[in-house]
């Protein structure tokens, strides 16, 4: 496993680096060939309360890409919580892979519900994320959506080559957005 530890607003000590390597090493036993693990450690300064210690990890494997983010007032506690969250994601992924898909799991291609536009001041972009868009089927994208725990997932459709979005509907089913 290739572990890359980065620090933002903090210096990553050797003890924290080895602690993270030891804890994330547990995941290596559960995953088949995790190719790369990126751990970003951050400190949010807040003068009124104790500093918030944040650990954010992305794990690239031959199957899913796992992501998690945890925070606490102690960096080691944040890493522990992060590893627990990633272990739950791995378990959920393994269970879903063993389960046979039913008719309910099929993705519906209905139009998404429209959401009213908010005030421009409230709609500011505060964070930008970049990620590789891998070709996959909509069913694999739904698995990824469940693993990352988000409401939507962007992917490249392996059949059409177009960028698509799967999303979780309010009724618990899934929708697929395809370009024309």
Please explain how this structure is put together:
With 180 residues, the chain is an alpha/beta fold. Helices cover 29% and strands 28% of the residues. It has helices at 14-30, 75-98, 138-148, and strands at residues 2-8, 36-44, 52-60, 65-72, 135-136, 152-157, 163-168, 174-177. The strands form two sheets. The protein has a four-stranded mixed sheet. Helix 1 (14-30) runs parallel beside helix 2 and helix 2 packs antiparallel against helix 3. Residues 103-121 have low confidence and may be disordered.
The helix/strand series, from N terminus to C terminus, equals EHEEEHEHEEE
Total helices: the number is 3
Major beta-sheet overview: 4 strands, mixed
Largest sheet: spatial strand order: 1-2-3-4
Task: Kindly state the number of beta strands.
Answer: 8
Using only CA atoms, what is the Rg? 18 Å
Nearest-integer average pLDDT: 79
| Beta-strand content estimate | 25-35%
Question: What overall geometry do the principal axes of the alpha carbons give?
Answer: globular
- Amount of helix: 25-40%
Low-confidence stretches: 103-121
- Structural class category: alpha/beta
Distance between the termini: 41 Å
Task: Write a brief structural summary.
With 180 residues, this protein is of the alpha/beta class. The protein is 29% helix and 28% strand.
Q: Which terms summarize this structure?
A:
single chain; 180 residues; alpha/beta; four-stranded mixed beta sheet; 3 helices
């Amino acid at each position: 496993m290739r572990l890359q530890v980065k620090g933002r607003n903090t210096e990553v000590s050797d003890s924290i680096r080895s602690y993270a390597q030891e804890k994330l090493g547990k995941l290596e036993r559960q995953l088949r060939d995790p190719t790369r693990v990126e751990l970003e450690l951050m400190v949010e300064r807040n003068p009124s309360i104790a500093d918030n210690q944040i650990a954010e990890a992305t794990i690239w494997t031959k199957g899913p890409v796992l992501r998690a983010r945890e925070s606490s007032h102690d960096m080691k506690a944040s890493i522990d919580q992060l590893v627990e969250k990633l272990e739950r994601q791995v378990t959920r992924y393994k269970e879903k892979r063993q389960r046979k898909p039913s008719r309910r799991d099929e993705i519906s291609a209905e139009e998404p519900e429209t959401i009213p536009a908010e005030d421009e001041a409230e709609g500011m972009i505060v964070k930008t994320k970049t990620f590789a868009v891998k070709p996959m089927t909509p069913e694999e994208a739904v698995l990824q959506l469940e693993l990352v725990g988000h409401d939507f997932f962007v992917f490249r459709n392996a059949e059409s080559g177009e960028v698509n979005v799967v999303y979780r509907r309010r009724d618990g089913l899934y929708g697929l957005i395809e370009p024309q």
